[in-house]
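Reopening: structure tokens for the zinc ion complex, inputs below.
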Amino acid sequence: MKQQRPRIRSPRRSSALAAAAVLAVAAATPTAVPGTAPARAGHARARDAGAAACALAPAPGASPLSEGIPTPVGHSRGTGRVDALTLMIDFPDAPGEGTARRRFREFFPQTARWFARASYGRLDYRVSAPAGRWLRMPRPFGSYGLDRGSPYEPGYHRLLTDLVRVAGPVVDFRRHDLVNVLVTPNAGPPAVRAVLSVSFAANPRAPVADGVRLANVSFVYGRQDDGTGSYPRTGFRVLPHENGHLFGLPDLYTGAGGDLAGHWDVMSEDWGPGNDLMAWHKWKLGWLRAGQVACAARRGGSAHTLSPLGRPGGTKLVVVPLSATEALTAEARTDEGNDDRVCRPGVLISRVDTRTGSGGGPVRVADATPGSPGCTREPNVHPGLSDAAHRPGQSFTAGARGERVTVRVTGRDARGGYRVEVTRGPASAGGRG
Ligand SMILES: [Zn+2]
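Re-run output (same inputs, fresh job):
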């Protein structure tokens, strides 16, 4: 039996803290083998015109939260109208701090705006908080035994069951695609000490309310305040991160933090200055239209112009498949849209691996300046990869299956797009052995 949902989000570090261990929790629930089930409407499909050869399928036996396309069934839809039922809860031993409405406003409308920008309007995130007050759980917080990395059983199962009972009289659970549970910040340790926030995606054992299973639920604890005073503007991003899991995205951080994907994706780092999702994630979520993904699968050369990821329109992603489970990706990253304080704009080149599950490093950013200390001193930004983007004149080469693949940034156009050339040929081409 494979490691299976519900998936547990591991705690992440904050600026001054040591890296937290990745906690992978097996829940041993038999479900469909990833890749054999059709995608739900709203996720990218392998048959996107022109890019089929580049949509890496989930690797056999891979975790359900992988970079594979399509996303396995059971996850929340990531496009079109998505109704996010949002409930604020407190406990007898942790009574609500301030009003529930104020807690709600730490995340909304910012989260809906963030998704609108990130998805170029393809995700219409609607939030409702019908209770309008703290929902008091019947047992003390401590009695649920919830800690960093706690699995679904038994604590979260008990908490969700209690929540359904308490919310029942005032909440209609029928019309929702996902549930956000915003926990009073005084329940549990401060987020700078331990991040408890967690999501249970495509969870077949979740309780049923009003005839609907609460299969996709994100819990948010504490306040991810980086201490710079930016919390009201950027602190909500734990929720897009958690909801990202409900839509099928894996964690990109590892036990060492954001050392592999840096600050280039909210699934890697959701503290600190604002950031976006990588282009591969946008494709997986169905946010890129046919024609916005260029697939460089054939031998020879091809030229592309990448439009900055933070603005709508144009080519957003060039994929160079290396095998059935690995690809290089290229995307243009600048200070636009959800990206905030990119200190070295350019073309970000990464390696995506569908065999590697959540928290294991499924995306590795290629560093254009290896060994440099980076170009940022922002807290909660992995510094070494902050200057990873490639500038005109720079290139990245990878070998795969006797081939040699090079992605070269050749220049910029008048609109700020980046021109890239991809060449792939025999490893021996060019006289290099
Ligand atoms: Zn996570």
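The chain has a mean pLDDT of 88. The longest helix spans residues 152-167. Marking as resolved unless the reporter disagrees.
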